[in-house]
Predict the structure.
Amino acid sequence: MLDDLLLRLRSLFRRKTVETELDEELRFHFEKQVSKFMQSGMAPDEAKRRARLEFGGMEQVKEEHRDARGVSFIETLLQDIRYGLRILSRTPVITSVAILSLALGIGANTAIFSMMDAVMLRLLPVRNPEELVQVRIRTVKSGTEMNGYFTNPLWEQLRDRQDVFSNAFAWSENRFDLAQGGAVEYANGLWVSGGTFETLGLRPVAGRLLSPADDQRGCAGAAVISYAFWQDRYGGAEGAIGSNLSLDGHLFPIIGVAPRGFYGLMAGTKFDVAIPICTVALFGRDSRLDGRSTWWLEIMGRLKPGTVPQQLQARLEVLSEQVLAAAVPLDWEKTKRQEFLQRVLVGVSAPAGPSYLRRQMERPLYVLMAVVGLVLLIACGNIACLMLARGLAREKEMATRRALGASRTRLIRQLLTECILLSLAGALLGMLFARWGNALLLRYISTGRQTVFFDLSLNVRVLLFTAAVAVLTGILFGVLPAFRSTRVSLTSAMKSSRAVKSDTRMRFRPGKWMVASQIALSLVLLVSAGLFLRSLLRLATLDIGFDRNSVLLVNTNLKAAKVAPERRLDVYDEVEVLFAKLPGVISVGRSWRTPVTGYEWNEYVSVDSPGAPREDDSLVYFNYVSPGYFVTLHSPLLRGRDFQASDSKTAPGVAVVNEMVARKFFPDANPVGKTFRVGNGSKEPGRIFQVVGLVKNSKYESLREETFPQAFFPISQIPGNDDSEYFEIRTAGRPESLIAAVQSGVAQVNKGISLEFGTLAKQIDDSLVQERLLATLSAFFGGLALLLAMIGLFGALSYLVTQRQPEFGIRMALGAMPASILRLVLREVATVLLVGLAAGLCLALATVHVLESLLFGMSARDSVTLITATLVLAAAAFAAGYLPARRAMRLDPMDALRYE
Amino acid sequence: MADRRIDLPQGTLDLLILRTVALEALHGWAISERIHQISSKVLFVQQGSLYPALHRLERKDWIKARWGASENNRRAKFYELTALGRKQLELEESTWRKLAAAVAQILETT
């Protein structure tokens, strides 16, 4: 056995020696034979001839000998590769075009796949991630609706009572300002329960990680930083351990560094610093520790080994009653409290950690994966056509090799090797493209508010995917041409006349169908690109109820400024006056929140009329704004008045409502002067507000929402002196040009106020990230597909025209007009195009409905899009067909015939 | 001359080669000559099948090859039987004898 292997290896590595030895052995035999014949009286020449005849093909013997040696597979492969490289380098332009288009196709696939891998497939880099379970809560009535957020009392109950997990932990994400006043410098923070790192099975790179002892009520606080943060901010210095880090103005000693590769629990984010849950008290948010209706923690647990899902669920259901009963929100009204007790804890396997980005990106990623898959198919089509044409041109070579004794399998294998070489080269280049593409993608989906982070480093899964795609692609575009071009009839191929090759046209027919299918696929891509573009356009030109342009948003935060709570409003007033005086400022508004963000404040509203909305239907969305807010946003006041200075903290409660509130609560009446009550009679009667004005409907949370009923209240009447407010500044020039002036102005008032800048236009743009991503990428790939399909069409037609040159020459010599030649060629275009378009339309109509949920306010079978895409494709096809057609038309009959 | 040749039945070439090199180490040409002579010029081994067969047997470790000097002092590759090859030869010989006897019996009785 070992000897056998050695012999094989010897022949592989000492191929030369082995081949020479074989040569020598055979020559010896041959000479012996010759001398034998000569001894029997033959003339030397005759003897040699006889010997050669008896010998048979020397090469054939060698080939059989190689088979017997048993290394032929690898050896032939190496030989094929050498030969393939030689063939490919002989046509550098075609080869590079092929490699480039493959690289684009494979690169796009790798990029999107590694995104999918990072978002959906990758498990948390912790010990036995498959044991991790996320605890969620289900409201019994709705059955499927689940929520992943818990109050701290609920978490403490669960932690102390549970017995299905070997350990459980809770965490919450938060941004912390690292700067102490002035421009903010945000770090992504985590509040974690003491047992988090232990439960995950993580070990510190330096120092120590948080332990349950660090997470006790009244704790002093300690921080664990991530490896990346340690590298970026401290250069990986040991001295970082023990130094202090300022978070929102509070100092925390750094006790250790989390392991490299652990970026936090949610895909799409990365944490910089983690501090124990008990420290919320240090930030003056004690309410979070005991608040029974402050839902801010997420919970995960590690299953005890051997626990099956049914056991887990059964235990959690029993636990639910005890846990919920001990943490009922006391301020809720009775019916809601009873409803609360009906809820059930649910365990959801979460080996990859929970991710909201995952749910949001899942569908777009699938769509993009399909799109890039189609692009790659189209690229394959092109290269298949190319290979087919080249195969037909190499007919003579094939015939010669067949005649010399090569089997057809052998030739097919050779041709496929060439194809796989091409696609592997494409894949290598494609991986490079994919890296750029991914960096670009991440930058694209990150917004001013949220930097999206994915660990996109190469891993085995992505590499395997790319390799598999490359090999499959090679086979896909190689098989048909390989079979076609090795099916040669020896005699006719050896003749050099082109007349006998009239069947080439027939044999190129699959090329035409390939072009037709390329057209069909690119139509599908064009249609989806069109849909996404139109949908984005709709969103971008939507009437949002205010003017987004030329508005600078400034978030002012007093957390670190040491301002007494009762003085806060005065500080904001002072800042507002200062802003209004800055040159280039048209008007200034102030508010608790800005439009089209996730911050929301809603409450139940009631009016004393019989048909008034009740329960969830009576939910109204709130904002607290200054008198200049509506003017600054260009949000038209339809009736009544704006807020004014006299609506002070002590004045009677007033409100401005939008048209939706007016329609719901005061139908058929002028809302101005009417009153409503906030809170639908839970434990206290609720405050009464008088409507003083009516404003146009506007968007609250996102552009895609149905109109929300909104009520605005004077910011001077905001309950509980908030420590953060927004300023909206309408500017004459570019909003960003005011940032410096605003910064120095605020520093005059108080150096401790932290500031964050943005523009309203950018904020609204950012809310369309997903839509813009889909539109841009699908337009890019749609364009690429169109280009590839047109190159394919152009190539196929050029080939056909060259093949039919003699025929055209004869026709012209017999009196055909150039126009009729043109018609002949364009007829080819038209057939291919019609078949392609028809198939493409069917395909598009059958598949686009999956895009429906990603579109805004339009059907996926949008006729405008379908017609436009069809027309664009038809125009492009005729443009691509025109050049070869013109060449055919301008043919000189003499030249064309002289070839014969 | 050609009409006197008989094509070798499948699988017998290996047996013949093993048998031929059982007595002494021989080079390829000598093997084919020996088979030709001993069979009274009935069997003729095409070198197209001889060498692949030799290399196959070598790989199976039934024969081994070494370079030596031929009768007129040229370098030639000599093949000889290995211990394993000897066992194989005995096995194949007995199989062949049984087969030949059986075939002969059938031919004589019918």
